[in-house]
Automatic annotation (TrEMBL), chain A:
This is Na+/H+ antiporter subunit G. It is a multi-pass membrane protein. GO terms for molecular function: sodium:proton antiporter activity. Its main location: membrane. Keywords: Antiport, Membrane, Transmembrane, Transmembrane helix, Transport. It comes from Paenalkalicoccus suaedae. It comes from the Bacteria.
Automatic annotation (TrEMBL), chain B:
One of its GO terms (molecular function) is sodium:proton antiporter activity. Belongs to the CPA3 antiporters (TC 2.A.63) subunit F family. The chain crosses the membrane at residues 34-54, 63-82. One of its GO terms (cellular component) is plasma membrane. This is Na(+)/H(+) antiporter subunit F1. Its main location: membrane. Keywords: Antiport, Cell membrane, Ion transport, Membrane, Transmembrane, Transmembrane helix, Transport. It is a multi-pass membrane protein.
Length: 124, 93
C-alpha cells in the first residue's frame, strides 16, 4: 500500500459520499427547488472529486496524462449550474408549487412590480 | 487496498443511482423527473471513470466526456420543451 493509493482512495470515498448525500437530498427534500439545491451542488462536487482521483491514479501509477478527464472536470463545473438554472426556471414558469412552509417568493413580487410598471409589451 | 475501496465506491454510486431512479419513477411533477435524470447522468460519469481504474485503460475517457455533454444538452432540451417554448430562442418570443 503506497502513498498514492491512500490519496486516490480518499478522493474516491469523498466523492462517493457526496454523491450519496445528493441522492438522499433528492429523495428527502419536499419540493422541486429543494431537490434541485441538493442535486446540483453535492452531486457535482462528488463527481469532480471522483474524476480528479482517477486522473491522479493515471498520472502517477500508469504514467499517462489523460487530458480528457481534466476537460470533463471543467465541463461539469461550468455546465451544472446552467442546467440547474434552466430546470428551475422552467419549473417556475410551468407553475410548480413551492413547499407549504416556504417563507418568501421574491420572483413573484418582482414579476408583479414589473407588470405594474409596464402593462403592455412594446412590439417592434 | 485500492480494490476494496473501488468495490465500496462502486456500491455507493449504484445506491445513489438507484435512489435517483426511484425519484424519477415516483416524482409528482415532471420537473422532479428532470432533476432526477440529470443527477443520474452526473453519477454515471463517476461510475465509468472508476471503471477506467478497474480495467486499467484510458480508452473510456471519450465516453466520460461524451456522457457529460449529452447529459447537459438533454437536461436543457427537456427543460425548454417543458416550458412550452422552442429550444433555440432569440429572446424576443
Amino acid at each position: 500500500m503506497s502513498l498514492i493509493e491512500v490519496i486516490v482512495s480518499i478522493f474516491l470515498i469523498l466523492g462517493a459520499f457526496l454523491s450519496v448525500l445528493g441522492s438522499i437530498g433528492i429523495i428527502r427534500f419536499p419540493d422541486v427547488y429543494g431537490r434541485l439545491h441538493a442535486a446540483t451542488k453535492s452531486a457535482t462536487l462528488g463527481v469532480i472529486f471522483v474524476v480528479a482521483g482517477v486522473f491522479l491514479y493515471f498520472l502517477v501509477v500508469e504514467g499517462i496524462v489523460v487530458g480528457k478527464l481534466l476537460l470533463t472536470i471543467l465541463f461539469v463545473f461550468l455546465t451544472a449550474p446552467v442546467a440547474a438554472f434552466m430546470i428551475g426556471r422552467s419549473a417556475y414558469n410551468v407553475g410548480v408549487k413551492m413547499w407549504d412552509r416556504s417563507k418568501q417568493d421574491d420572483l413573484a413580487r418582482d414579476l408583479e412590480k414589473m407588470n405594474k410598471e409596464k402593462p403592455k409589451k412594446s412590439d417592434f | 487496498m485500492l480494490d476494496i475501496v473501488i468495490a465500496i465506491v462502486l456500491g455507493l454510486l449504484s445506491l445513489s443511482i438507484l435512489i435517483c431512479t426511484g425519484r424519477a419513477l415516483i416524482g409528482p411533477t415532471m420537473s422532479d423527473r428532470i432533476v432526477a435524470l440529470d443527477t443520474i447522468g452526473i453519477n454515471l460519469i463517476g461510475f465509468i471513470a472508476i471503471l477506467m481504474i478497474v480495467q486499467e485503460t484510458a480508452a473510456y475517457s471519450d465516453v466520460v466526456l461524451l456522457i457529460a455533454i449529452l447529459a447537459f444538452i438533454g437536461s436543457v432540451a427537456i427543460a425548454k420543451f417543458l416550458e412550452g417554448g422552442v429550444v433555440l430562442d432569440r429572446g424576443d418570443s
